[in-house]
Amino acid sequence: MAFVYHRTIRFADTDAAGVVFFPNYLAICHEAYEESLASAGMELKIFFSKHGVVVPISKSQAEYLRPLVCGDKVGVTLATTPLGADSYAIDYVMHRLGRPEKLAARVHTEHVCISSQSRTRQALPSALAAWVRTHSA
Q1: C-alpha separations of 98 from 34, 53, 75, 84, 101 in Å
Q2: Catalytic residue (choose from 13, 15, 72, 91)
Q3: Is residue 15 annotated as a catalytic residue, yes or no?
Q4: Could you tell me the domains of the chain?
C-alpha cells in the first residue's frame, strides 16, 4: 500500500527564479520516506544505531515535469519495490494539489543496507523489510 505525504512548498525550497530548486525535490521525497518509516513505528534516532546498519541511496533519478512555487500544496506518494534481501527501491510521485491536480515530478531511489562498521552488505532488519513489503506497489 502506498504512503502519501502532504507538504507546503516553502520559500527556502525555491531558487532565485522562484521555483523549487531541483535537488529540493529529492529532499522533499526524503521527508516523505522518513515520515513513512516513522508512521510504521520506527523511532529513527535509534533504529539504525540499534541494528548497526545504514541504508544509503545507491541510485537516484528524477523527472521534473512542472515547476512548483512557494505556497503550493503538494502530495508525495511513495511505493516500494524489494530488490533483494539487502536492498529496495522507492518510487515517488509528486502532485501539486488543488484544482486541477497536476503531476509535478517522478523520483526513483535505490537503497542498499550495509553494516555501519564493516560497510559490507547486510540483510535488511526485519522491521525495515516489513516496511518495504507493506508499501510495495
Answers
A1: 25, 40, 10, 38, 5
A2: 15
A3: yes
A4: 3-134 (3.10.129.10)
